[in-house]
Amino acid sequence: MGRIRKDTTNSAAIREINIAMRAIWKGSISFGLVNIPIALYPATQREELSFRLLRKGDLSPVNYKRVAEKDGREVSWDEIVKGYEYEKGKYVVLKDEDFQRVDIEATQTVDIQDFVDLEEIDPIFFYKPYYLEPQKSGDKAYVLLRDSLASSKKVGIAKVVIKTRQYLAGVKPNDGALVLELMHFADELMDTGKLHLPKKLEAGKREMDMAKALIDSMTSKWNPEKYHDEYREALMKVIEDKVEHGGKAIEHKLKKTPKPTKVIDLVSVLQQSLEKSGANKKKAKRPAKYPHHHRKAA
């Protein structure tokens, strides 16, 4: 059987990722009479583990079929239309010309409509970033917009159409680049008023002081490299073990899931947490005998 390549930068076995940066959209940023030619690149990457459904007896892949609910018969692509359910069980069919009638000009422009103080915007509105790269003759205007946004601590609020859908987006400076970050429209966010949240209950002064002390003891400088997907790494280790053993089951000790406990004495729990946090900090300050990054992957 094949062998999965290891990434020696982590202790867990991870498949090597080599993704070339490819522009997904080219156009321009527009504000006032200024026009900056740009290319749009994904700012994030995530390799999902892909699994196939197999027949247990001979590991033959199981394929999906498009079947109609009414009679269970398979439906070919040329028989499929798009429909919107306006009432339970009632649909209206939309054809290609209906989508074309929608009056949104699909221009290749990030049209900045307003500039807003970044601190005024709730972070929950932002959800997906893209890098903006200046194209030929756009460098000077690109730098002008990037640096003026950075010095004013503002964000450009824009409308942009990507793949037939219109988005609200923020244009922000980040690490020498301009970032286009897609945003939710206000009506897409759920109202927290529908949640059963404690409103009249107030924390006691002693509990509050201890909670603040615990937060202080756990406070550190932001280091994104410190956090990684432990579940994915552990799952890849299990997969690699099975590949190396010809697909046979490997005996793994199952971790016991801790049962949630009822918090009765909040002060006592906070005190224990403070003591544990202090001990962990002392432990972290001690120099490691064998630094993690020197370990070789098995």
Question: Mind explaining what this structure looks like?
Answer:
- The chain is of the alpha+beta class.
- The protein is 22% helix and 24% strand.
- It has helices at residues 96-100, 139-152, 205-217, 230-244, 266-285, and strands at 25-31, 34-42, 82-87, 90-94, 109-117, 126-134, 154-162, 165-174, 177-183.
- Strands 1-2-6-9-8-7-5 form a seven-stranded mixed beta barrel. Strands 3-4 form a two-stranded antiparallel sheet.
- Strand 3 (82-87) and strand 4 form a beta hairpin.
- Helix 3 packs parallel to helix 5.
- The longest helix has 20 residues, at 266-285.
- The two termini are 19 Å apart.
Give a concise summary:
The protein has 298 residues and is of the alpha+beta class. The protein has 5 helices and 9 strands, in the order ββββαββαβββααα.
Straight-line distance between termini: 19 Å
What helical percentage do the residues reach? 10-25%
Mean pLDDT, nearest integer? 80
Shape: extended
Which structural class do you get from the secondary structure elements? alpha+beta
Q: List the total number of helices.
A: 5
Largest sheet: 7 strands, mixed, barrel
Secondary structure: number of strands: 9
**Unreliable spans:** 1-19, 288-298
The Rg value, from CA coordinates, equals: 27 Å
> Proportion of β residues?
15-25%
- Strand arrangement within the widest β-sheet reads 1-2-6-9-8-7-5
